[in-house]
């Protein structure tokens, strides 16, 4: 169907649209480029479900595209046995515009299929949703969030019964069912009152909070340390206008961190994120307000969580006492070092322990792990793969999960959650900071010690935007070109190995070998003769190709120069 016909269908169904969407439908037609983009194609399920700008259209996040996905999930569940189906679905949502409305709409669609729904009575973090699925023994979960994207976006994630993001093979069934819904306006809903009275809709909140908080108490490794040092540690915390606000105080207090100063202006649930450009805890500017407050109260560290509280960013004082934002990889290295060292000291480092990371994350935690005879398992980008590895370890009883992370600021320690959990990460960071403070050191000092011991492993990610309708096609083409003309050197340094995760082949020493331990993914990873690695992949959540570079040298300065040079050389190649 062409986009004009698609608009005509939306217009014909005007009476089903809420007022704001009616207005937006009229407005969008005055801008042909935007209208074409919104109506000429359908949203796709990416790394983490669907994420898009909100507005009318089949390629936008709105009541009807959210409805289509939920109807897909409902039809998948219709195929289950009655007992399985009756386990129901847990739904949560973040602080964004329309998040609560979308969540209720999902409940009404599932309810129409006689699927029980457990809907949070107010916004809650993504990790709490993941926990709630297992806690309530539900069959699936839905989270309405666009994570750290800007305010125009919203998103939709589906979780499976293990609390992890639904694995691709199940998502495919949902996607196939979605494709059968050719008219988005035909998806039926039940009324909320009806569902409430029939018992199909249950509101959850406080009980699940208490159960989740109790589990969060098990994250600490050395409770005695927290008891003795927790009172002295000064933390400035910002929930960046999102769900972290709901539980942070109890989380810190229950774990003996009493001096937590919240950034009051960012503890307001504001879907416009009016104090920041984007609610992304990886950017320096996101910490501006927090930094001011941290200087006033002489805080040791700043912790920020994104609006759905699954990712976490940290700023620490450097040797000049100025706050510096750590990268996702640096946070992972510091936490890995602390977990392994403290467990080792306490005699709690079990044999067959394992950390899990994505293939585009730093090699430094792997090197630290090796030093403690702990395995490091690599998985594809997407926390669901870390969830799958945890499940595998549990099922086969072949190992003990200690820590999972991605360079994109996602961390998990305890498997009562099967996605990244910023609350767990906040706790372990506070404990780590307390550990070093006890020795008169900061987390910045900790990072320097790690570099000195293991080498300067430094990584940088940059991305190339591919907006617009033909963006996805252009990204695929770019990857294809790099596959058909394999690079042999970069900046004069030979490329010794190339892994192609789509064709599942590894090119090395003029040989091509097949590898099948990962699902197929559009990723190319290059290994250079000097130990540098580069990876390139189209993002699954944004219209971007991401370039990741990791180097290992003997000084920070040498690492920075090396990274700049390689990144530049590769970027030049891509834009030629
Ligand atoms: O690099 P992308 O495909 O955009 O994904 C970036 C991140 O997106 C989401 O937050 C996923 O849950 C993460 O697992 C993933 O690392």
From TrEMBL:
It holds the Pfam family PGM_PMM_III. Its EC number is 5.4.2.2. CDD domains: PGM2 (cd05799). Belongs to the phosphohexose mutase family. The keyword Isomerase applies. InterPro entries: A-D-PHexomutase_a/b/a-I, A-D-PHexomutase_a/b/a-I/II/III, A-D-PHexomutase_a/b/a-II, A-D-PHexomutase_a/b/a-III, A-D-PHexomutase_C, A-D-PHexomutase_C_sf, Alpha-D-phosphohexomutase_SF. Its cofactor is Mg(2+). Residues 44-183, 211-315, 327-454 form the Alpha-D-phosphohexomutase alpha/beta/alpha domain. GO terms for molecular function: isomerase activity. This is Phosphoglucomutase. Keywords: Carbohydrate metabolism, Glucose metabolism, Isomerase, Magnesium, Metal-binding, Phosphoprotein. The keyword Chaperone does not apply. It catalyses: alpha-D-glucose 1-phosphate = alpha-D-glucose 6-phosphate. It comes from the Bacteria. Residues 517-561 form the Alpha-D-phosphohexomutase C-terminal domain. The lineage of its organism: Bacteria, Bacillati, Bacillota, Bacilli, Lactobacillales. Pathway: Glycolipid metabolism; diglucosyl-diacylglycerol biosynthesis; Lipid metabolism.
